From TrEMBL:
The keyword Transferase does not apply. It comes from the Eukaryota. Monomer. Residues 15-341 form the Enoyl reductase (ER) domain. Belongs to the zinc-containing alcohol dehydrogenase family. The lineage of its organism: Eukaryota, Fungi, Dikarya, Ascomycota, Pezizomycotina. PANTHER family: HYPOTHETICAL OXIDOREDUCTASE (EUROFUNG) (PTHR45348), ZINC-TYPE ALCOHOL DEHYDROGENASE-LIKE PROTEIN C2E1P3.01 (PTHR45348:SF2). One of its GO terms (molecular function) is oxidoreductase activity, acting on NAD(P)H. Keywords: Oxidoreductase. This is Zinc-binding alcohol dehydrogenase domain-containing protein cipB. The keyword Oxidoreductase applies.
């Protein structure tokens, strides 16, 4: 049998197009698996990595955070996976800098504690939308200990419980606002918070109200509604629940203005952002930025993901848009991501 040949979509330097070419065949180290990728997903972070070289530690680079495929090799110490099993995984080139940890290749190293079996009923194309957003959602909702996302930028510490499979909800008395509920991150935070028993009030574009509802949001408001702040505040007050704060998946100037107006009327709370938070926030607002690679997600990967996908408690949302089949389509998918998407995740099949 001939040895498999690995190929990758390489980034040679910031601001250039990806180049498809041969790549070393990775081997699985302690606690790692090698995944033969059947589908990879695009995240906005990848666009920043390509354009600006942020987080790139080694050139040329292979980046990308989401894979779905079959286990090709199992490293020492890994008990949860066998060769040939269908999995999804969150790849961590972002922190390791190693090209073999980037998703945009035929074979990728995945840490076993950032992977889960993908039920047979879910295609690789659907399943690949989950991993990075899932870990981002756990980081947004459940961190308790102070830390930094970037130098001088604190992590959010909402300290909410993990999602539950059995419906035992220790946080059934809480309400959270999710700004950007139709985004990949916002829809996953909505799903995970709902699965922890938290009432979610979401803010999306007008065409995505129903989508956000299907993620579990109890009430949804259009971010262009001129009475947005008043309506969201009223919904929180009417719930008579303990107000946690806002998760803002969009984290740009207009959403921040709404977030701060809502928080001011509700007496403050957490403001968990996907980018550095506003520089000026009142004392009663605890603002932070998530960093979506964190071992806090391990229990969720190990104990929740597969069973929740099987039962339908966790859905592969937002639905994928397949850009093409083959590594050469990743550049086109990145270009589409830069142009903006609505309630979908761009996927390339391999
Ligand atoms: N810090 C971290 O660790 C981390 C982790 C993950 C993501 N991020 C960042 O988080 C951001 C979101 O990522 P993503 O993958 O979730 O994005 P995404 O899925 O590509 O976001 C697309 C969505 O953004 C919504 N949107 C755009 N402008 C909006 C506005 N002004 N108000 C409300 N919604 C708006 C659109 O909603 P409608 O179509 O409904 O209008 C669309 O559905 C990106 O900037 C990404 O880089 C950071």
């Amino acid at each position: 049998m001939t040895a498999p040949r690995n190929q990758a979509a390489w980034l040679d330097k910031a601001g250039t197009s990806l180049r498809v070419g041969d790549a070393p065949m990775p081997t699985a180290g302690q606690g790692e698996i090698i995944v033969k990728n059947a589908a990879v997903a695009i995240n906005p972070l990848d666009c920043h990595m390509q354009d600006l070289g942020v987080f790139v530690q080694q050139w040329p680079s292979i980046f990308g955070c989401d894979v779905a495929g079959e286990v090709y090799e199992v490293g020492p110490g890994v008990q949860r996976f066998k060769k040939g099993e269908r999995v999804i995984g969150h790849t961590i080139n972002l922190v390791s800098g190693r090209p073999e940890d980037g998703a945009y290749a035929l074979y990728t190293v995945v840490r076993a504690d950032k992977a889960a079996i993908l039920p047979n009923t879910i295609s690789f194309t659907d399943g690949v939308v989950v991993p990075f957003a899932l870990e981002a959602a756990v980081c947004a909702l459940s961190l308790q200990e102070a830390g930094e996302a970037l130098p001088g930028v604190p992590l959010p510490t909402l300290g909410l419980p993990f999602p539950s499979l059995d419906g035992a909800y220790p946080s059934a008395d809480k309400v959270l606002i999710v700004y950007g509920g139709s985004s990949s991150t916002g829809s996953m935070v909505t799903q995970m918070a709902t699965a922890a028993g938290i009432r979610v009030i979401a803010i999306t574009g007008a065409r995505n109200l129903e989508f956000s509802k299907s993620c579990g949001a109890a009430e949804i408001f259009d971010h262009k509604d001129i009475a947005l702040v008043e309506k969201v505040v009223e919904a929180v007050q009417k719930s008579c629940l303990d107000f946690v704060g806002v998760f803002d998946a969009i984290s740009t100037a207009a959403p921040y203005a709404h977030d701060l107006a809502i928080l001011a009327k509700l007496g403050g709370g957490h403001l968990a952002c996907t980018h550095p938070p506003p520089t000026e926030v009142p004392d009663n607002v605890k603002a932070g930025m998530i960093f979506a690679v964190n071992d806090i997600a391990t229990p969720v990967w190990q104990g929740f993901v597969t069973a929740a996908l099987e039962s339908g408690k966790l859905k592969s949302f937002p639905p994928p848009t397949v850009v093409g089949k083959g590594l050469e389509y990743i550049q086109e998918a990145l270009n589409m991501s830069k142009a903006g998407v609505s309630a979908t995740k761009l996927v390339v099949e391999l």
